[in-house]
Design a protein that fits this description.
This protein is mainly beta. Helix content is 0%, strand content 72%. The mean pLDDT is 88.
Length: 120
């Protein structure tokens, strides 16, 4: 079972999902509607969201600002600057607060929480 929450505190939007997925070594794999999601967990966290029209790759690393990419079929590839303010990883959860900038324009502050448990 995977529980996901994504929030942009500057807006009222709050997305919540309860899903089933696969935990394999240091990766979580699941599907949100038509989007395939892969989360790779090390000292940092890589989030890849892919569907037929777009692919978003974000790297959360609290020790360094990082780069990501957002490919949109109709637009092309956009480079994303990522500042991870908080990254907490436990055996069954990830919590991160991060800021995104695309083309020198601040997109906002986001909070991403995911809890997962292994069901046999």
């Amino acid at each position: 079972m995977i529980q996901i929450s994504l929030k942009n505190p500057e807006e009222i939007n709050l997305l919540n999902f309860n899903l089933e997925g696969i935990k394999k070594n240091n990766e979580l794999i699941y599907k949100e509607e038509s989007t395939d999601v892969l989360i790779r967990i090390d000292e940092s966290v890589t989030l890849i969201r892919k569907n037929e029209d777009s692919e978003l790759t974000l790297l959360f690393d609290v020790t360094n600002n990082s780069k990501g990419s957002y490919f949109i079929r109709e637009v092309g590839n956009l480079e994303i600057d990522i500042k991870t303010n908080i990254l907490e990883i436990t055996n069954n959860s990830i919590y991160t607060e991060y800021e995104l900038v695309i083309n020198n324009e601040a997109i906002g502050l986001f909070i991403f929480k995911i809890r997962f448990e292994e069901i046999e």
